[in-house]
Amino acid sequence: MKHIEIMMFEGCPHMHAALERAHSAAASTGVASSVSVVRIGSLAEAVDRRFLGSPSVRVDGIDVEPAARGRIDFGIQCRLYPVGSGFEAAPPVTWIAAALRGE
């Protein structure tokens, strides 16, 4: 069973989009998974949890954005995802699905 974490700060306007995309990815792959929401409440916790901004999505503890693995800009901040020639406020379903499949 895979575990999807939606990490966010209280009041994140894009949390629901991330949650919907996580559920869509799980349904589309057929991979047995659970989804939980993790609230980050302080800068110290953000640094400790390596939180890159809200919302962040991890599968089994690994961020779904491959380019994020080398980042160190942790904090209580909104997060944008570089997709194509623009940005989205939540990771694409395809990224979450790939992480669920172990790609």
Task: Explain the layout of strands and helices.
Elements: E1 2-8, H1 15-29, E2 33-39, H2 43-48, E3 56-59, E4 62-63, E5 81-83, E6 86-88, H3 93-100
Parallel strand pairs: 1-2
Antiparallel strand pairs: 1-3, 3-4, 5-6
Helix pairs in contact: 1-3
How does this structure look, described?
By secondary structure, this protein is α+β, with helices and mostly antiparallel strands. It has one domain: Glutaredoxin. Helix content is about 30%, strand content about 25%. The protein has three helices and six strands. The strands form two sheets. The protein has a four-stranded mixed β-sheet with strand order 2-1-3-4, covered by helices on one side. Strand 3 and strand 4 (about 60-65) form a beta hairpin. It starts with a strand and ends with a helix.
Keywords:
25% strand, Alkylmercury lyase, Glutaredoxin, two-stranded antiparallel sheet, alpha+beta, 3 helices, 103 residues
